[in-house]
Write a structure and sequence with these properties.
alpha+beta, 10-stranded mixed beta sheet, 5 helices, binds 2-oxoglutaric acid, binds fe (ii) ion
């Protein structure tokens, strides 16, 4: 079975999303999701943006916006929610006068999902969506999994049935920058054990060869299930710049929720 499915913006379906939830498909690839003019405008601005900062837990990665995964205490929790809407507006502005691909993704999923899709709220506070991430030359995004539960408050555990990831590629190096996917879903305990003292992720040497390797192009959208191990090979030339989105699945008849 082909574990990476190619489709188009118009053909993306409810069943495609469910196939990722069930891990029948490892990734769904939509080539040319972004419109050319909009991408060219944004790429110029994003490659040299004054608001680029460093990801709290792994300083080798640049980012615009404050990720949910950066929450480690009450102050960072407040920061995430206070900056959520201003950061959404800031990234929307980068694409102006065109619609931002993050907004288009939100609308597309709201339209295709029977119960719709909206920003995640935690304790009545909205979450940020659409983080811009920079992986500069020779930086390795090690094999890892993503789990919202690592950063949710204690009384909010257990409300997701599945987590999906949706990346929009703004700049992709000529060499390197491939997405690697393994068909391995470690339990949280096993993952923490494999991680040991590392800030995040697992050594590649501890894993077999990946089940799939995909090289996206600038403008593409890739959906994946980040509860299975995945990684991004280092770029050998320009920075790899993406817009990252997570989707929460709470059942087929419930809305999808968004955060970054
Ligand atoms: O940038 C990518 O291709 C994948 C990034 C990633 O780790 C994720 O989507 O969870
Ligand atoms: Fe990830």
């Amino acid at each position: 079975m082909d574990r990476v499915r190619e489709t188009t913006r118009t053909d993306l379906s409810h069943d495609d999303v469910l196939s990722l939830v069930k891990k029948e498909t490892l990734a769904i690839h939509i080539k040319g999701f972004c419109r050319g003019e909009s991408l060219a405008t944004a790429r110029r601005k994003l490659l040299d943006h004054e608001d680029r900062g460093e990801l709290s837990q792994a300083h080798e990665f640049g980012r615009i916006g404050f990720a949910y995964s950066e929450i480690s205490d009450e102050e960072s929790r407040r920061t995430h929610h206070e900056q959520a809407l201003p950061n959404i507006a800031k990234l929307r502005e980068v694409f102006a006068p065109y619609p931002s691909p993050t907004d288009e993704l939100r609308l597309l999923l709201d339209e295709l999902w029977p119960a719709g899709a909206h920003l995640m709220e935690v304790d009545g506070k909205k979450c940020f969506i659409g983080i811009c991430r920079y992986q500069d030359r020779n930086v390795d995004l090690n094999p890892h999994t993503d789990a919202l539960e690592r950063n949710l408050p204690a009384h909010y555990q257990g409300h997701l049935q599945a987590q999906l990831s949706a990346n929009i590629y703004v700049n992709i190096p000529e060499q390197g920058g491939e997405l690697e996917l393994w068909d391995i879903e470690p339990s949280e305990g096993d993952y923490q054990g494999l991680m040991g003292e590392r800030a995040y992720g697992i050594e590649r040497e501890k894993l077999p060869a990946p089940a799939a390797v995909v090289k996206p192009a600038a403008g593409d959208l890739m959906l994946l299930n980040p509860r299975v191990i995945h990684a991004v090979r280092p770029s050998h030339d320009s920075s790899r710049v993406t817009l990252g989105h997570f989707l929460g699945f709470m059942g087929s008849d419930r809305p999808l929720v968004f955060w970054s």
